[in-house]
Amino acid sequence: MNLQIPRNDNSKLMIYIWKIIGIPKIKREELIYEISFNLFLMTPHKALETIQKSISEGILVENEDNSLSLSKTLSGKLNRWQQERKNEIQQREEHIQKRGKIVANFEKESSSDFNTILKAFLDKGTINRAVTVSDSAFNLKTIDKKEGKIEAEVAGSKEDPYYIKISKNNKILSHNCHDFVSRRAPDKKFCKHLAKLFLLLKEKEESFSIKFLNYIANYINEWEFGD
């Protein structure tokens, strides 16, 4: 959400103000008070001038009850923004609920084949960090069962996505996030991205994920972990 104050554009400024006050219409005096003493955007005199100019430009509309509201065009923009925000919040809540279930199931079903083998590659707390990574952050580029190859990209804190390349034939696991390279790879452990990758693969085909993890575990001394 971008709430940077657009001081040089009255149209954008009024939408900004209406996003915050959260009501469809407001009395002129109350709007001046909001602008000056709650939002601290400008002096009351300047606020009055801005309101009057916005009315003359058709940005604000004077209603029969002497209240002010956004023009029809700006009201439409505001409604679309509110719907987008509602969808974002709903998706965020669903993601939080989903990751809570994953952690709960991981702890509850600790003896399942998948959870048992995945735990062997995780340090304490890694699973909690893994579920914070969004599913949409991943781009599963290659899942080749015959060749035993997995390639993926995952969005991170850097501009360019991190890469993940795993080859059973070459026994190489390559990933370039700092946590993996500096802390996990030397001990042949997974970072949150790798843990999340196998959680995603489990959803697609659990048996494949288990076999792949078992293969890494069975030949762990022959595997090379790094970037």
Keywords:
2 domains; 227 residues; 52% helix; 5-stranded mixed β-sheet; Arc Repressor Mutant, subunit A; 9 helices; alpha+beta; 3-stranded antiparallel β-sheet
Brief summary:
This protein is of the alpha+beta class. The protein has helices at 10-21, 28-38, 44-56, 72-108, 113-119, 126-130, 178-184, 192-204, 206-218, and strands at 25-27, 60-62, 67-70, 138-144, 149-154, 162-167, 172-175, 224-226. It starts with 9 loop residues before the first helix and ends with a strand.
Protein described:
This protein is of the alpha+beta class. The protein folds into two domains: 1-108, Orthogonal Bundle (Arc Repressor Mutant, subunit A); 110-226, no CATH class. The chain has nine helices and eight strands. It has helices spanning 10-21, 28-38, 44-56, 72-108, 113-119, 126-130, 178-184, 192-204, 206-218; strands at 25-27, 60-62, 67-70, 138-144, 149-154, 162-167, 172-175, 224-226. The strands form two sheets. Strands 4-5-6-7-8 form a five-stranded mixed sheet, with helices on one face. A three-stranded antiparallel sheet has the order 1-3-2. Helix 5 runs parallel beside helix 9. It is elongated, with a radius of gyration of 27 Å. The two termini are 34 Å apart. The model has no long low-confidence stretch (mean pLDDT 89).
